[in-house]
Please model this.
Amino acid sequence: MSQDLVRLSISGAVGIITVDNPPVNALSPGVPEGILNGVQVFNATDDVKAIVLIGANGKFIAGADIRFFGKERAKLPMRPQDALEQSNKPVVAAISGFALGGGYEMALGCHYRVALSNARVGLPEVTLGLLPGGGGTQRLPRLIGPAKALDLIVSGRHVPAPEAYGLGMLNKIFPAGSDLQAEAVHYANSIADLRPIPRIRNMKDEVKKGTPELFEAKRKEIARRARNQEAPYVCIEAVEVACKTQIDDGLKWEGDKLRYLENTDESRALRYAFFAEREAQKLPDVPKGTPIKPITNAAVIGCGTMGGGIAMCFADAGIPVKVLEASQEALDKGMAKVRANYETSVKRGSLAADEMERRFARIEPVTEYDAIAQQDVVIEAVFENMDVKKEIFTKLDAVMKPGAMLLSNTSALDIDEIASATKRPQDVAGAHFFSPANVMKLLEVVKGKESSGEIVASTMALGKIIGKAPAATGNCDGFLANRSRAPFNSEMVILLEEGATPQQVDKVMVDFGYPMGPFAVGDLAGLDIGYAGRARRAAADPNYRTLPIADKLYEMGHYGQKTGAGWFKYEPGDRTPHPHDVVDQLIKEHMEANNIESREITDDEILKRLLFSSVNEACKILEEGIAYRASDVDIMWLYGFGFPRYRGGLMFWADLIGGPQEVYSQISSWHQRYGERWRPSEYLRKLAESGTIFKDAKAGS
Ligand code: T1G
Model:
């Protein structure tokens, strides 16, 4: 078995160990054994003077097999990376594609590391709530120094080969497209007789730079981003251990910490999120192998905040895009905003000026529909008015080439009604971006009843191409994301009617892990959007629970930051939220008018009122088959609403705090107290009774 996953061959005096475990050469059971065997065989083969470790299919190794964490794993007589390091014949790691986690740790066990220029390396374990547990925290600081090692291990970022070479993580780079095996064998011959063999365990100088100040500064630097998390701090401590102890003691310490971290809720949640994002790509009702439409260029209708941001997504992905506005004035204004967005990134240092110019040049402003007729995909991104959208789709139907993807960025409107404005509803789908579109990763792909499998699969593929996390939904008011969020948005305001304050609610959610509190988010997005949505839902549903405090605040002209006040008050040029006396007065008047006694509302009640209301709605969405699976709900909440990733997502978190039974019991008691809006969904009741957990819940009753 392990021989199939790892092949041995000889080229002249060089033994070659090839890892071949599709799709990413993960270190699944059999692979570590195969590598260990290869080192032993070639060390016992007299004709072999040097060894190359390489991956098949243009990839090195993606790291440990994440599916096996939290489970019993075979214990090897020796870890392959240690055997590589102790080999009596020099070993060269030949890296193409990626060498990540345990993959790069194998390369650190080797004595030399060479790579193609388009490869990338890294130790991303912290993104899974782990630490590099295969020697990375002890070897990397010895190779490149603790400061640079800290940055890479605590961020988990992938490092492009040229940068990795500059950091000292690689010994040599070959041009992309080179014959890596041939180059690596040639390189191995050139170092075969060099002595002493450069083993990282013998490098003592770099770790002397590990001062207490360095580690304290790192702990301060990550404090906000790493709130409520353990792994980032363990990663810092691991590098500190590397600077203070013998490597074998450090390796043992590291291994113990890995076994601890892999059983934390934080790591379980992050590993779940990793797979949930990939599971979301799977469309049960679209046949595997459905052709993907070409996406070599694009068009966006509308160059407002959303349209401009969407255009940037294409430009950032290297795809030329035309942006169409009705008037030259609107176009100029929109393009100026796009340029300003790019200039902000350049000022922040996250984008090079020359790259900004290249991206900006990919966006071509146009004012005529004929100018976009030959584009492969067009995304309508004008304001949320059905008549305007239908008028645009009628025009698109008239001018766009046959087979073009006709997508709408609508956040809630009926995609079937939009498609009915065309003669090709099979080519229409929703591509719902979240604001700011060039930043937020979620792409909600909305299937119309006549959307073809091809358009749905192509829109999902579009999401991946432009670096988004796509997830699909059926058609309903608000689709999956906003419909599941709507009860949360209501409940937070209703809590004010009972005595909570916007600042208390926001603090609860920020302490839970959100980057911003929901009231502050409302002020940022604009309270006019919520007002329109509530009016639409109230018109459609006589039982809709209105929010008089929110409506009055809007009707008084308080739209949030854009008017200097909303739920909070803002000083000019300062986004810091301050309590808003008008809101306090509205709450007071509401409670007096309705004879409501203010009561002490606990933080726990606030958290569960907001999140359980959305769990219940998500169960209805699953029951109706609007969502394929509960983990898609989690992808929407992680990437669309900033739900803290180390809690896995709305449904995964609900499992952690008791699952369907706990949620059903709590919601049932609120149903007694508050009436219809808290009626538990049938689907939730069945989950509670069947003992199923949320994260495994699928569409249908
Ligand atoms: N384990 C198991 N499955 C994996 C995997 C892994 N490490 N990486 C990818 N897959 C699956 C993935 O679920 C998908 O499956 C398929 O491979 C293609 O993945 C001891 C503790 C390598 C950059 O964190 O970042 O080593 O959906 O769609 O876009 O110190 O996969 O097809 O069924 O993502 O080309 C550290 C995780 C592990 C790297 C490729 N390593 N992987 O991206 O393909 S912990 C990582 C990735 C560790 C040691 C520690 C990406 C990729 P399916 P994909 P891609």
Observations:
- The two ends are 42 Å apart (CA to CA).
- The mean pLDDT is 95.
- Residues 23-24, 26, 62-67, 98, 100-102, 105, 124-125, 128, 130, 132-134, 136, 275, 278 surround (2S,3S)-3-hydroxy-2-methylbutanoyl-COA (CB under 6 Å).
